[in-house]
């Protein structure tokens, strides 16, 4: 899937593995995320989850909702709220493209992963996605099982 060069380029903080099962992934975008100091420290610990999160537009800006970043244990009274909305940093043109896709085409903005780039900045990989129906999910599962079985057979044959 990803090469060693890609893994060396960034360090993963949170991954939304379920998104590829629940949604058909379209175009992807890289966005910055506005975080407080304790959120960055906690993200580096790697216990955050974005499985139930989504991004939406509010007052011409894109916000990330329902992303869980646990409290940083060493920051007693200056800690952050774990599921607060967080502003995403995108160019105006990108925001415009995302909003058109959401409003006209009925797509959803789904975060795929939160990672640290080579400069150490936290980034979010967003994707325009369309929800899968139940039969699409079954089809995906069937194809995955068949590919697994096919590779098992090929290994056994030599």
Structure description:
This is SsrA-binding protein. Residues 136-152 have a biased composition (Basic and acidic residues). Belongs to the SmpB family. Keywords: Cytoplasm, RNA-binding. It is a single chain. It is built from 5 helices and 7 strands. A 7-stranded antiparallel β-sheet has the order 1-6-7-2-5-4-3. It has one domain: Small protein B (Small Protein B, Chain: A), CATH 2.40.280.10. It has helices spanning 4-9, 19-22, 37-45, 92-105, 134-157, and strands at 11-15, 23-33, 54-58, 61-65, 86-89, 108-116, 122-131. The radius of gyration is 18 Å and the shape is globular. The chain is α+β, with helices and mostly antiparallel strands and 158 residues long.
Low-confidence stretches: none
Largest sheet: 7 strands, antiparallel
Order of helices and strands: HEHEHEEEHEEH
- For the secondary structure, the number of strands is 7
Q: Which topology does CATH recognise?
A: Small Protein B, Chain: A
Mean pLDDT: 89
Report Rg: 18 Å
Count every helix, treating DSSP H or I runs of 4 or more residues as helices: 5
Quote the distance from N terminus to C terminus: 23 Å
Protein name: SsrA-binding protein
Pfam family, one: SmpB
Subcellular location: Cytoplasm
Organism: Kaistia dalseonensis
């Amino acid at each position: 899937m990803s090469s060693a060069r890609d893994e060396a380029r960034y360090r993963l903080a949170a991954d939304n593995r379920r998104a590829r099962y629940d949604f058909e992934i379209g175009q992807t975008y890289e966005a910055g995320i506005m975080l407080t100091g304790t959120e960055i420290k906690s993200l580096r610990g790697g216990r955050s989850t974005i499985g139930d999160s989504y991004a939406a537009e509010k007052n011409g800006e894109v916000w990330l909702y329902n992303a869980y970043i646990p409290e940083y244990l060493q920051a007693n009274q200056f800690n952050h709220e774990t599921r607060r909305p967080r502003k995403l940093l995108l160019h105006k043109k990108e925001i415009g493209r995302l909003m058109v896709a959401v409003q006209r085409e009925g797509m959803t903005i789904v975060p795929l992963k939160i990672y640290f780039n080579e400069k150490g900045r936290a980034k979010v990989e967003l994707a325009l996605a369309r929800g899968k129906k139940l039969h699409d999910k079954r089809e995906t599962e069937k194809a995955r099982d068949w590919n697994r079985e096919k590779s098992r057979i090929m290994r056994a044959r030599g």
